[in-house]
Amino acid sequence: MRRGFTLIELILVIALIALVGGLMVVNARAILRGLGEEPVDRILQNAVREARYQAASLKEPAFLYYDEEEGLLRINSGTGRELASFLTTEGEVFPEIEFEQILPARGLEGFGRDDTAPIDGIVFRPDRSSTPFQVIISEGPRSFTLRYDPFSAIVIDDSRTP
Prior knowledge:
Elements: H1 7-35, H2 40-58, E1 62-67, E2 72-77, E3 82-87, E4 96-103, E5 115-119, E6 121-124, E7 133-139, E8 142-148, E9 155-158
Antiparallel strand pairs: 1-2, 1-6, 2-3, 4-5, 4-7, 7-8, 8-9
């Protein structure tokens, strides 16, 4: 009695190994491409954290703004010196990022309603406070608003969450 594999069994095994290997290569490429990209809201949070740190450590205001042409969140010192920058995407299409100041309510008629005004960027002071603000981020058809606490710079309201 002969023991071994038939030609059909060998071809089947080789075909299965090639199929699994091909799937692994395609998935590995997708994973490697996605490793360098961070969501815009996380990049923004890092920029806010850095601006607060720079203002406190330099003991002067730090200004965070969005450079639409280059897709960069930039942090400048009170004297205009660039302290840091954060690239918002690796692609050619940059997200739209708009800063809005949250204005105080006007007496009882404004109770429960927030008024906002567009601003160029956010000022972080050495005491780690900032302008009360929210950020509107638009990535293609998707748009959402992040509202920040001016004292801790923590997101207190995210329009993506129900």
